[in-house]
Amino acid sequence: MIQMTEEGWRAILSGESPDLRRGRHLFGLIPSNPRCKLCYAPFRGIGAPLMRLLGKRQFSKNPNFCNTCLMSGTIGGVEIEITMLFADVRGSTTLAEQISPSEFSRLLNRFYKVSTDVLIQTDAWIDKLVGDEIIGLYIPGFAGPDHAHLAVHAAGKLLHATSHGEASGPWVPVGVGVHTGVAYVGLVGSEGGISDLTALGDAMNTTARLASSAGPGEILVSEAASTAAKLDVGRLEGRQLQLKGRSEPVAVRVMRAADV
User: Fold this and answer.
1) Which of 110, 114, 202, 256 is most buried, judged by most C-beta within 10 A?
2) Could you tell me the sign of the dihedral formed by the alpha carbons of 135, 139, 142, 145, in that order?
Protein backbone atom coordinates (compact mmCIF):
# COMPACT_ATOMS: atom_id res chain seq x y z
CA MET A 1 0.00 0.00 0.00
CA ILE A 2 1.34 3.45 -0.96
CA GLN A 3 2.30 5.66 1.99
CA MET A 4 0.84 9.05 1.12
CA THR A 5 2.00 12.20 2.90
CA GLU A 6 -0.08 15.33 3.22
CA GLU A 7 2.18 16.94 0.61
CA GLY A 8 1.56 13.97 -1.69
CA TRP A 9 -2.18 14.27 -1.31
CA ARG A 10 -2.03 17.99 -1.97
CA ALA A 11 0.08 17.47 -5.10
CA ILE A 12 -2.33 14.87 -6.51
CA LEU A 13 -5.54 16.69 -5.64
CA SER A 14 -4.21 19.99 -6.98
CA GLY A 15 -2.79 18.35 -10.13
CA GLU A 16 0.83 19.22 -9.27
CA SER A 17 2.33 15.79 -8.51
CA PRO A 18 5.72 15.30 -10.26
CA ASP A 19 5.34 11.50 -10.12
CA LEU A 20 1.90 11.79 -11.64
CA ARG A 21 3.23 14.06 -14.37
CA ARG A 22 5.95 11.53 -15.23
CA GLY A 23 3.39 8.71 -15.33
CA ARG A 24 1.11 10.78 -17.53
CA HIS A 25 3.97 11.37 -19.97
CA LEU A 26 4.83 7.64 -20.10
CA PHE A 27 1.27 6.35 -20.43
CA GLY A 28 0.46 9.16 -22.86
CA LEU A 29 2.91 7.65 -25.34
CA ILE A 30 0.67 4.57 -25.67
CA PRO A 31 -1.80 5.32 -28.50
CA SER A 32 -4.99 4.02 -26.88
CA ASN A 33 -8.22 5.72 -25.84
CA PRO A 34 -10.17 6.13 -23.63
CA ARG A 35 -7.75 6.58 -20.76
CA CYS A 36 -7.60 7.65 -17.10
CA LYS A 37 -7.89 11.41 -16.89
CA LEU A 38 -5.49 11.46 -13.95
CA CYS A 39 -2.59 9.16 -14.96
CA TYR A 40 -3.46 8.67 -18.68
CA ALA A 41 -3.48 4.86 -18.32
CA PRO A 42 -5.29 3.48 -21.42
CA PHE A 43 -8.35 1.31 -20.82
CA ARG A 44 -8.73 -0.13 -24.32
CA GLY A 45 -6.68 -0.84 -27.39
CA ILE A 46 -3.12 -2.13 -27.37
CA GLY A 47 -2.33 -0.55 -24.01
CA ALA A 48 -5.18 -2.16 -22.05
CA PRO A 49 -3.54 -5.59 -21.46
CA LEU A 50 -0.40 -3.93 -20.10
CA MET A 51 -2.45 -1.74 -17.78
CA ARG A 52 -4.32 -4.78 -16.48
CA LEU A 53 -0.97 -6.39 -15.67
CA LEU A 54 -0.18 -3.26 -13.65
CA GLY A 55 -3.55 -3.57 -11.89
CA LYS A 56 -5.06 -0.54 -13.62
CA ARG A 57 -8.71 -0.79 -14.67
CA GLN A 58 -11.56 1.67 -15.01
CA PHE A 59 -12.84 2.64 -11.60
CA SER A 60 -16.46 1.61 -11.10
CA LYS A 61 -17.43 4.91 -9.43
CA ASN A 62 -16.15 6.99 -12.33
CA PRO A 63 -14.90 5.37 -15.57
CA ASN A 64 -12.88 8.49 -16.37
CA PHE A 65 -10.33 7.35 -13.78
CA CYS A 66 -8.45 4.14 -13.02
CA ASN A 67 -8.88 2.17 -9.80
CA THR A 68 -5.30 2.64 -8.59
CA CYS A 69 -4.62 6.38 -8.82
CA LEU A 70 -6.09 7.10 -5.42
CA MET A 71 -7.80 4.00 -4.10
CA SER A 72 -4.48 2.24 -3.40
CA GLY A 73 -3.32 5.00 -1.07
CA THR A 74 -3.40 5.06 2.70
CA ILE A 75 -6.14 6.73 4.71
CA GLY A 76 -5.55 10.47 4.63
CA GLY A 77 -6.13 13.62 2.67
CA VAL A 78 -5.77 17.37 2.73
CA GLU A 79 -7.84 20.53 2.99
CA ILE A 80 -8.21 22.04 -0.46
CA GLU A 81 -10.59 24.35 -2.29
CA ILE A 82 -13.03 22.45 -4.48
CA THR A 83 -16.46 23.01 -5.97
CA MET A 84 -19.31 20.76 -4.88
CA LEU A 85 -22.55 19.96 -6.68
CA PHE A 86 -25.57 18.36 -5.00
CA ALA A 87 -28.57 17.50 -7.18
CA ASP A 88 -31.78 16.45 -5.49
CA VAL A 89 -35.09 15.11 -6.78
CA ARG A 90 -37.64 17.53 -5.40
CA GLY A 91 -40.84 16.15 -3.92
CA SER A 92 -39.63 12.57 -4.09
CA THR A 93 -41.86 11.50 -1.21
CA THR A 94 -44.96 12.70 -3.06
CA LEU A 95 -43.72 11.08 -6.27
CA ALA A 96 -43.23 7.76 -4.49
CA GLU A 97 -46.82 7.91 -3.20
CA GLN A 98 -48.22 8.49 -6.69
CA ILE A 99 -46.54 5.61 -8.53
CA SER A 100 -45.63 2.00 -7.80
CA PRO A 101 -42.30 1.13 -6.11
CA SER A 102 -41.06 -0.39 -9.37
CA GLU A 103 -41.94 2.75 -11.34
CA PHE A 104 -40.27 4.92 -8.71
CA SER A 105 -37.15 2.76 -8.89
CA ARG A 106 -37.03 3.12 -12.68
CA LEU A 107 -37.43 6.90 -12.35
CA LEU A 108 -34.56 7.17 -9.88
CA ASN A 109 -32.36 4.89 -11.97
CA ARG A 110 -33.01 7.10 -15.00
CA PHE A 111 -32.12 10.16 -12.90
CA TYR A 112 -28.92 8.47 -11.68
CA LYS A 113 -27.93 7.52 -15.22
CA VAL A 114 -28.53 10.99 -16.66
CA SER A 115 -26.82 12.73 -13.72
CA THR A 116 -23.84 10.38 -13.76
CA ASP A 117 -23.33 10.96 -17.47
CA VAL A 118 -23.37 14.74 -16.99
CA LEU A 119 -20.92 14.63 -14.09
CA ILE A 120 -18.52 12.29 -15.87
CA GLN A 121 -18.57 14.45 -19.00
CA THR A 122 -17.58 17.48 -16.89
CA ASP A 123 -14.74 15.71 -15.01
CA ALA A 124 -16.44 15.45 -11.62
CA TRP A 125 -15.61 12.83 -9.04
CA ILE A 126 -18.93 11.13 -8.33
CA ASP A 127 -18.97 11.03 -4.57
CA LYS A 128 -22.28 9.40 -3.74
CA LEU A 129 -25.69 8.33 -4.96
CA VAL A 130 -27.80 8.67 -1.85
CA GLY A 131 -31.56 8.14 -1.89
CA ASP A 132 -32.85 10.72 -4.36
CA GLU A 133 -29.61 12.73 -4.52
CA ILE A 134 -26.31 12.67 -6.41
CA ILE A 135 -23.12 14.39 -5.23
CA GLY A 136 -20.30 15.47 -7.53
CA LEU A 137 -16.92 16.86 -6.47
CA TYR A 138 -14.99 19.13 -8.80
CA ILE A 139 -11.42 18.69 -7.58
CA PRO A 140 -8.63 20.74 -9.23
CA GLY A 141 -6.49 17.63 -9.80
CA PHE A 142 -9.30 16.11 -11.87
CA ALA A 143 -11.29 19.05 -13.22
CA GLY A 144 -8.51 21.64 -13.51
CA PRO A 145 -8.42 25.24 -12.27
CA ASP A 146 -11.83 26.06 -13.76
CA HIS A 147 -13.61 23.57 -11.48
CA ALA A 148 -16.26 26.10 -10.41
CA HIS A 149 -17.16 26.92 -14.00
CA LEU A 150 -17.43 23.21 -14.82
CA ALA A 151 -19.72 22.59 -11.84
CA VAL A 152 -22.09 25.41 -12.82
CA HIS A 153 -22.02 24.19 -16.42
CA ALA A 154 -22.84 20.65 -15.23
CA ALA A 155 -25.76 21.95 -13.18
CA GLY A 156 -27.19 23.59 -16.28
CA LYS A 157 -26.68 20.48 -18.40
CA LEU A 158 -28.47 18.45 -15.73
CA LEU A 159 -31.53 20.72 -15.86
CA HIS A 160 -31.68 20.39 -19.64
CA ALA A 161 -31.12 16.61 -19.46
CA THR A 162 -34.16 16.31 -17.17
CA SER A 163 -36.23 18.52 -19.56
CA HIS A 164 -36.51 21.58 -17.36
CA GLY A 165 -37.42 24.60 -19.42
CA GLU A 166 -39.33 22.57 -22.00
CA ALA A 167 -43.01 23.18 -22.64
CA SER A 168 -43.88 19.63 -21.63
CA GLY A 169 -42.16 20.08 -18.28
CA PRO A 170 -39.44 17.95 -16.64
CA TRP A 171 -39.74 14.18 -16.46
CA VAL A 172 -38.35 14.50 -12.93
CA PRO A 173 -38.20 17.71 -10.84
CA VAL A 174 -34.64 18.53 -9.80
CA GLY A 175 -33.04 21.19 -7.61
CA VAL A 176 -29.29 21.79 -7.56
CA GLY A 177 -26.85 23.45 -5.16
CA VAL A 178 -23.34 24.55 -6.17
CA HIS A 179 -20.75 25.89 -3.75
CA THR A 180 -17.01 26.53 -3.77
CA GLY A 181 -15.10 26.25 -0.52
CA VAL A 182 -12.38 24.50 1.42
CA ALA A 183 -13.12 20.86 2.27
CA TYR A 184 -11.11 17.94 3.58
CA VAL A 185 -10.63 15.69 0.55
CA GLY A 186 -9.09 12.24 0.76
CA LEU A 187 -9.58 8.62 1.63
CA VAL A 188 -11.72 7.98 4.70
CA GLY A 189 -12.48 4.62 6.26
CA SER A 190 -10.38 2.04 8.04
CA GLU A 191 -6.78 1.09 7.30
CA GLY A 192 -6.77 -2.25 5.50
CA GLY A 193 -10.55 -2.19 5.23
CA ILE A 194 -13.18 -0.32 3.26
CA SER A 195 -12.20 3.22 2.26
CA ASP A 196 -13.55 5.79 -0.14
CA LEU A 197 -12.48 9.10 -1.64
CA THR A 198 -14.82 11.78 -0.39
CA ALA A 199 -14.99 15.34 0.93
CA LEU A 200 -15.88 16.41 4.46
CA GLY A 201 -16.54 19.66 6.26
CA ASP A 202 -18.77 22.69 6.50
CA ALA A 203 -18.55 23.43 2.77
CA MET A 204 -20.18 20.08 2.01
CA ASN A 205 -22.92 20.77 4.55
CA THR A 206 -23.54 24.18 2.98
CA THR A 207 -23.87 22.67 -0.51
CA ALA A 208 -26.31 20.05 0.74
CA ARG A 209 -28.49 22.74 2.29
CA LEU A 210 -28.40 24.81 -0.90
CA ALA A 211 -29.69 21.81 -2.85
CA SER A 212 -32.47 21.17 -0.33
CA SER A 213 -33.48 24.86 -0.58
CA ALA A 214 -33.61 24.85 -4.39
CA GLY A 215 -37.02 24.62 -5.98
CA PRO A 216 -37.73 22.39 -8.99
CA GLY A 217 -35.69 23.62 -11.93
CA GLU A 218 -33.50 25.90 -9.81
CA ILE A 219 -29.72 26.01 -9.37
CA LEU A 220 -28.65 27.86 -6.23
CA VAL A 221 -25.07 29.04 -6.68
CA SER A 222 -23.27 30.46 -3.65
CA GLU A 223 -21.49 33.78 -3.96
CA ALA A 224 -18.17 31.97 -3.59
CA ALA A 225 -19.00 29.65 -6.50
CA SER A 226 -20.40 32.41 -8.71
CA THR A 227 -17.24 34.48 -8.15
CA ALA A 228 -14.95 31.52 -8.84
CA ALA A 229 -16.95 30.61 -11.96
CA LYS A 230 -16.88 34.25 -13.15
CA LEU A 231 -20.64 34.29 -13.63
CA ASP A 232 -22.37 37.32 -15.11
CA VAL A 233 -24.52 37.83 -12.02
CA GLY A 234 -26.17 41.02 -13.25
CA ARG A 235 -28.90 39.04 -15.00
CA LEU A 236 -29.42 36.52 -12.21
CA GLU A 237 -31.85 36.64 -9.32
CA GLY A 238 -30.22 37.10 -5.93
CA ARG A 239 -31.50 35.58 -2.70
CA GLN A 240 -30.58 35.62 0.96
CA LEU A 241 -31.14 32.19 2.49
CA GLN A 242 -31.39 31.37 6.16
CA LEU A 243 -29.79 27.94 6.19
CA LYS A 244 -29.97 25.53 9.09
CA GLY A 245 -27.01 25.96 11.44
CA ARG A 246 -26.14 29.42 10.09
CA SER A 247 -26.53 32.56 12.17
CA GLU A 248 -26.19 34.80 9.12
CA PRO A 249 -28.07 34.59 5.80
CA VAL A 250 -26.22 33.00 2.87
CA ALA A 251 -26.24 34.92 -0.41
CA VAL A 252 -26.91 32.92 -3.58
CA ARG A 253 -27.61 33.48 -7.24
CA VAL A 254 -30.50 31.62 -8.84
CA MET A 255 -30.13 30.03 -12.24
CA ARG A 256 -32.74 28.23 -14.31
CA ALA A 257 -32.68 26.32 -17.57
CA ALA A 258 -33.17 29.53 -19.55
CA ASP A 259 -30.03 30.99 -17.97
CA VAL A 260 -27.67 28.20 -19.04
Assistant:
1) 114
2) positive
